[in-house]
Amino acid sequence: MTDKCVIYNFEQRYREGIFRLIEEEWHPQWIFGDSNENIAPLPDDLLPSERVKHIHNVRFGPFYWQQGVVGQIRNYDTLLMLGELYCLSTWVILLLRHTLFTKKRVFLWSHGWYGKESLIKRIIKQWFFSLSDATFLYGHHAEKTAQEQGYKKDNLLVIHNSLNYELQRKIRDRLKPSNIYTKHFGNNFPVLIFIGRLTPIKRLDQLITALALLHKRGSDYNLVFVGEGSEYTYLQKMIQEKDLSSRVWFYGSCYDESVNAELLYNADLCIAPGNVGLTAMHSMVYGTPVMTHNDKAWQMPEFEAISAGQTGDFFIRNNVEDMANKIDLWFEKNKDIRERIRRNCFNEIDTFWTPAYQMNILKQQIK
After folding, report:
1. Is residue 25 domain-shared with residue 139, that is, in the same domain?
2. How far is the C-alpha of 226 from the C-alpha of 157, rounded, in Å?
3. 83-118 confidence digits (pLDDT tens)
4. Running DSSP on this structure, what letter comes out for residue 41?
């Protein structure tokens, strides 16, 4: 019987790469909660069914309880859990580890700190994460913010994030430029792209407003949305009102990674007006730089992959005019060094944002 157990809120396809390596290294028990979120699940054959258990997440407003997980601290020496403050069963496991099961080890995997926490939330977070044997954070901003807020324990480790890198790398190695955009748009204007769910938090309305402002100035760009979501109808209406229909392509959602790769590789700049998240990694692994807002407290950890002028750039949060200015400035400065920028993006992802990088950090702490 395995001595390790991985407990997650629900299974996500975008975790496939790192989950595959964890399975190969440790052969743990896997426990996944259910979810109503519209996120693709893991492939059925990724993990052995005899070591996968699906449970129910019982919700109480913002809080939830994972049924049947508390007792797992008896069954396994090591638990690797998603470190969500609002998961009450995780609190119970952490407290049991420090009272009745002191020889067990509990590791958390979390966003950690953002920098916008209230005083009360800071205190609660410090207590919560101090109860773990170690917490794996997605970025250095969280680590720095924790220290600035007075977190004293030396048990925070930056693990970054990853997508299905091995598959993406195989696809990338055979990619070549194509005419997918000149064929669709009938012009050679630079192509801006967003890939991800079309949701309010992504502030894609700001991107359309910036596109209209650029068009009014005489700076023409094409824009592609790859994804679906609740904002689709609203964004489409905006585009019609601003007479931009010929410059915007709603490609829709796509789970064929070869198609996503072609769309990203042949685009010139990915724009994420709201928090950038996994969009940054998905774009940069295929060599397309990323631009997003500069307010770290309202970002996701993946913004750290962006180096201004090297792998993308930043604009003032919620400032559409600054976004438009930065888009124009980007192409003014970088129009002749597209391949250099592409290599910068490759290098950033290949070095720091892969399942292998994450697995190495995990293995250093979890023996």
Report:
1. yes
2. 33
3. 999 999 999 999 999 999 999 999 999 999 999 999
4. P
Closest CA relative to residue 291, chosen from 223, 214, 193: 193
Q: Which residues span the domain enclosing 125?
A: 4-163+354-365
Kind of pairing, strands 134-137 and 105-110? parallel
**Count of structural domains, the chain:** 2
Which residue do the tokens 């991985």 mark?
6
pLDDT mean over 309-317: 97
Handedness of CA 178, 183, 189, 194 (dihedral sign): negative
State how beta strands 57-60 and 63-66 pair: antiparallel
Residue 115 sits in the same domain as residue 182: no
Whether residues 156 and 195 share a domain: the answer is no
Judgement on whether residues 307 and 181 belong to the same structural domain of the protein: yes
Angstrom distance (rounded) from CA 23 to CA 165: 16
For 174, residues 6+ apart whose C-beta sits below 8 A from its C-beta are none
Residues 154 and 246 in one domain: no
